[in-house]
């Protein structure tokens, strides 16, 4: 379909065009209270067209396609809508990239694509069996996604690939009087999890649940706090937002004028890795025909560069970093793929369930944070945060003594990343972010 779109666009626009076609199939299984609650599949496909005409950019999308060879009746109307959008669009000197060789990358795994509904249910039941315990409710979900993506532009660039993605998650609920305890975790990847991966996921949840059964009083004051890989979101979100070229252009990024400056602890490095094998977000080409490549954002505490799509790069007089991401409707935006935090080594890592990653012994009195409430709300990019804990543990004399309730942590992410007390040996993937546990000094901990 996109070939016909571009053929017609070439005849009707004077500044070029690009297009994306994508089809996604999703299969989901949910188990609650030991029983199969739901199982089903959905499919969607659509095309997105962007044109530049008379110096202005317009975008249009449609889901009225019958596949890669279907939707002929929608080609002309889609071009009409994109041109109409361009009449009201912003002026932009947008240059579409020429054809370039794409890196070789496995993104499609046959085992995941061929897994039947029964196979997915079996994975869910296997995890469920490892998590069941008296007095607890266990919820498990398994999702599988297969996708086909094709991008092309009027300058001759073309890219296409198939991909798979798997997500397995579980939550254990324990309600005792007015105490509601929820402990969860997830596996995400491009292929089916091995039996060992399912066992490690269950071990991670069970270990945290065992430590949480005893409730202790929270500490208070400016203390050392260990943030586990899932607990790092409040500290990572400000930084990743500030490293977006879009935020820099808007003038809201605290890092906008800090390229080359030593802003963070020397142990802090951050890389976006779209070529990481086995990850669902990996891809050989972005959604604007720019070949994927690894982008070093921060190296040993020094800010190196920002991420750009074609539009933000054009406005910043820079080059796209291959981070253009688009849906069926709306224009592309810059977005990350696989973020790797630490010294740059995304291969090593300890066992999934080792709470604190070996950092506990360095803490005489402090906190281990696994989950916070309200992350992502408010003026995140400014760096200041204050969140109640959803799941956190007190550390005394190098050991976890129990779970704390009615406590909150606060600080400024940019300042705290200058006070890194250590990185754990438990690096793992949490969604599309690879990170270890991190010990930060002087985090404000308050009782509520």
Task: Provide keyphrases for this structure.
448 residues; 6-stranded mixed β-sheet
Structure description:
Helix 1 (2-12) crosses helix 2 and helix 4 (117-131) packs parallel to helix 5 (195-212). The protein has a six-stranded antiparallel sheet. Helix content is 21%, strand content 38%. The longest helix is centred in the middle third of the chain and has 18 residues, at 195-212. A hairpin with a 4-residue loop joins strand 4 and strand 5 (158-176). The chain starts with a helix and ends with a strand. It is built from nine helices and 22 strands. The protein has helices spanning 2-12, 72-87, 110-114, 117-131, 195-212, 233-242, 245-250, 310-316, 413-416; strands at residues 17-32, 35-53, 56-62, 136-153, 158-176, 179-189, 215-216, 221-227, 269-272, 295-299, 302-303, 324-325, 333-334, 339-342, 365-372, 384-396, 399-404, 407-412, 420-423, 428-430, 433-435, 438-447. With 448 residues, the protein is α+β, with helices and mostly antiparallel strands. 46% of the residues are buried.
Topology record:
Elements: H1 2-12, E1 17-32, E2 35-53, E3 56-62, H2 72-87, H3 110-114, H4 117-131, E4 136-153, E5 158-176, E6 179-189, H5 195-212, E7 215-216, E8 221-227, H6 233-242, H7 245-250, E9 269-272, E10 295-299, E11 302-303, H8 310-316, E12 324-325, E13 333-334, E14 339-342, E15 365-372, E16 384-396, E17 399-404, E18 407-412, H9 413-416, E19 420-423, E20 428-430, E21 433-435, E22 438-447
Parallel strand pairs: 7-17, 8-15, 14-21
Antiparallel strand pairs: 1-2, 1-4, 2-3, 4-5, 5-6, 8-22, 9-10, 9-14, 10-11, 12-13, 15-16, 16-17, 16-18, 18-22, 19-22, 20-21
Helix pairs in contact: 1-2, 4-5
